[in-house]
Amino acid sequence: MSQTTGTKIKPTRPWKRTPKQQALITLNLLIGAVVSYLVVLATPMKGKLAYLAIFFIAVIVVNFVESYIKSGLAAAKDSIATSFATAGLIIAVVPIFSILFTIFDRGRAGLNFNLFLHDMKANGPNDPLGQGGLLHALVGSGIMVGIALLISLPIGILTAIYLTEIKGIYSRPIKFLVQAMSGVPSIVAGLFILSAIVFPITKSSSGLMGGFALSILMIPTIARTSEEVLLLIPNDLREAGVALGGTQWRTISLIVVPAAKSGLITATILGLARVAGETAPLVLVSGGGDAVNPNPFHAPMGSLPFYIWKGFTFGTPESIARSWAGIFVLLSLIFLLFIAARTLSGSGSKK
């Protein structure tokens, strides 16, 4: 019996551009740039915005003509759609990178080792950047976000369990309330705590009040994300738990919730990221102290958003540089939270 052996065929990648196609795209962009420059030079339309608009139109026309000559009308129409999609991507991405670059460029001037070791108790807005720091803001933000998490985590997850597993008669109004709370402006949460607790009861600002205000914003985020996670759990797991003689609550606690563990952790991290940068409620109810205050029940407590807002309010070069450094630190922390959420979400989906 004869056996024929064939040569291995290397898999092709039709989506990958060849060097010739890459050179043609570069040539089209250069033609568009030259045409845009000549139009701006010869017409009253001036400025960067006019140049970008003309460049976009010129590139579309050049791509259309090139595709029509090469592949016909259908490919030419497709090139127009591709040009608009690419332009949309650029419009979405460029401002984001511009913001990140601005924050890094202006924030690095105020970054130093003492920034994380000292507070602003003995320093003013005109003091050199090497003096003072945002230790009080880091400690305060951690305490208030921690208080909000202690309140929001059980309420949010239990709400999600009620909506997905119990499905009682109050499911619709609760779901409507959670969705409505998701769109509540942050300042409304601060005003609610201010009018309901601070003015009539405590008569003073504190970190506890800031934690209460942040929890109002965190609960709907955790509840909605947890609900979506629990809905992804197959019903076969629930049916298997009931078939083995388990009650509904034992099935939920021993099968459903452990199966959704990584997703629930992701929901928690997203809730933390949601409130970490909130400014308005903390300005109203936390007091924004300049010294490290580990006691959330007494005296004003600083936070990173309040530290940033206060620095810009003073308006001196030193205080503004400190604010930019605070923005850089806050954004870095939020990025780390989102990366952790993405990592946990990816590991959960692989399982």
TrEMBL record:
The keyword Cell membrane applies. Keywords: Cell membrane, Membrane, Phosphate transport, Transmembrane, Transmembrane helix, Transport. One of its GO terms (cellular component) is plasma membrane. The chain crosses the membrane at residues 23-43, 49-69, 81-104, 134-164, 176-199, 324-344. The keyword Cell membrane applies. It is found in: Cell membrane. Pfam families: BPD_transp_1. Belongs to the binding-protein-dependent transport system permease family. CysTW subfamily. PROSITE patterns: ABC_TM1 (PS50928). The lineage of its organism: unclassified sequences, metagenomes, ecological metagenomes. Coiled coil: none annotated. GO terms for molecular function: phosphate transmembrane transporter activity. It comes from freshwater metagenome. PANTHER family: PHOSPHATE TRANSPORT SYSTEM PERMEASE PROTEIN PSTA (PTHR42922:SF1). This is Unannotated protein. Residues 138-339 form the ABC transmembrane type-1 domain. GO terms for biological process: phosphate ion transmembrane transport.
